[in-house]
Amino acid sequence: MGTHMHQLATERNWAGNLAYQAAEVTYPTSVAELQELVANSPKVRALGSRHSFNDIADTPGTLVSLENLATDFHLDLEKMQVTVGAATRYGTLAAQLQQQELALHNLASLPHISIAGAVATGTHGSGDKNGNLATAVAALELVTADGSLIRLQRGDAEFAAAVVGLGALGIVTALTLDIQPTFNVAQHVFEQLPWTQVLQHFDAITAAGYSVSLFTDWSGETVAQAWVKRRPSADSEPWDHTKFYLGTPAVAAMHPLPGVDGSNCTEQLGVSGPWADRLAHFRMEFTPSKGEELQSEYLLPREHATEAIMALRGLSSVVTPLLFVSEIRTIAADQLWLSPSYERDSVALHFTWHRDQPAVEAVLPLIEEALAPFLARPHWGKLFHAGAAELAPLYPRFGDFIELADRMDAGGKFRNSFLERTVFNG
Ligand SMILES: Cc1cc2nc3c(=O)[nH]c(=O)nc-3n(C[C@H](O)[C@H](O)[C@H](O)COP(=O)(O)OP(=O)(O)OC[C@H]3O[C@@H](n4cnc5c(N)ncnc54)[C@H](O)[C@@H]3O)c2cc1C
User: Fold this and answer.
1) pLDDT, tens only, 57-108
2) CATH number of the domain encompassing residue 311
3) Which residue CA neighbors atom 46 of ligand 1 most closely?
4) Among 14, 144, 207, 404, which is disulfide-ready with 170 (CB 3.0 to 4.6 Å)?
5) Torsion angle, CA of 216/344/136/413, rounded to 10 degrees?
6) Total structural domains in the chain?
7) Helix and strand tally (H, E) in the chain?
8) For atom 53 of ligand 1, which residue has the closest CA?
9) Mutate to test the pocket of ligand 1, among 41, 64, 121, 229 (most ligand atoms within 8 A of CB)
10) Is residue 425 part of a domain?
11) Measured between alpha carbons, how far is 29 from 22 in angstroms, rounded to an integer?
12) Which atom of ligand 1 is nearest to the CA of 170?
């Protein structure tokens, strides 16, 4: 057995709202060492870059970080795929790919997150035609409960269950992702779009770029900001960036959060440049978003977008006081069983909250009640109230996932209280 580092886990997640209950964090340096560790642990979970806001990554047993795992970076230009270690951060991979004039299809709002951790929760960016980040996964290697290393690829029976796997089926060591030739993006920010325009032209607005985000606190008569990321070479229809649904173009770099410096954000003002420096909102070298915050997000079929938005505007008096900002994005449907955009072209309604967890937890049931008629599915890595009984009917393959988890992990070593609450105890 090689030398791996142990660390006592009075460790916290990125937001600081969760102290992991695990007794230790372990850093294996080889796959063989990881296999032995998993085989011999009664309870074990993988830890990514700790950006989730709930206890999804936690375990009463051993937490495993793959940060020290020796992994290969392998490009296959014939298949247009790249294979990377699970702990690789999107920002690191994006820079490596851009150097070779290659690209991923999309990024989340921040580049700091690990690929395996992001994929495991169905993390997404925006864009009507862009599936979540997990849709780029062509294959993955994982260490299963008995310590064996298996490889699953698109088309394999368990593949569509394992990709957005919530860490319930095993510890992913490497992922193979689809890539494409590099492309340029020009990012335009517009301010103060009247809600009447946004609600009337919602489909046209989200189709106006490769990736579009709207930022609001739900109060008032305008949407504070629209971020439109266009591919100048592909989005060829005429584009007048001097106005956008009665919103006015920003004259300086903006931050989605009111009062925060726009220099922490990726290049704007319509300056075209590589996807790797534009598709995320936040720059790798700065703290993303606010830092001292909590987040929640709900994905629902996009045909309900305007009704759901109106429902949330109706809750503004209780929601707005707790908010830094909300973001509205769109995501294309996929086939990954527990993906919040499974078989539904989706709109995502996101909340960046003040770090007042009791107050946020009090308001989440109200939001979930308001969004229930639209069959909203919560983001697995953010704060939500629903349990397995509410979530099971929202996912056609929920029962199949449980059956598979029972088969692959009969002793429940990858189960934790999050999974008991939200998946297994329906
Ligand atoms: C500032 C900020 C901005 C965000 N923006 C977005 C956004 O734009 N879009 C969005 O969708 N989400 C966003 N998120 C949420 C974030 O993307 C998810 O919570 C994501 O899962 C975090 O990945 P991580 O690597 O930090 O994983 P962790 O939080 O450490 O773990 C998440 C899950 O992945 C599992 N996991 C990690 N590594 C492995 C592995 N090797 N094998 C198996 N399972 C593994 C863990 O066990 C756990 O279940 C944001 C979060 C923050 C803090």
Assistant:
1) 999 999 999 999 988 789 999 999 999 999 999 999 999 999 999 999 999 9
2) 3.30.70.2520
3) 57
4) 144
5) 100
6) 1
7) 12, 20
8) 51
9) 121
10) no
11) 20
12) 43
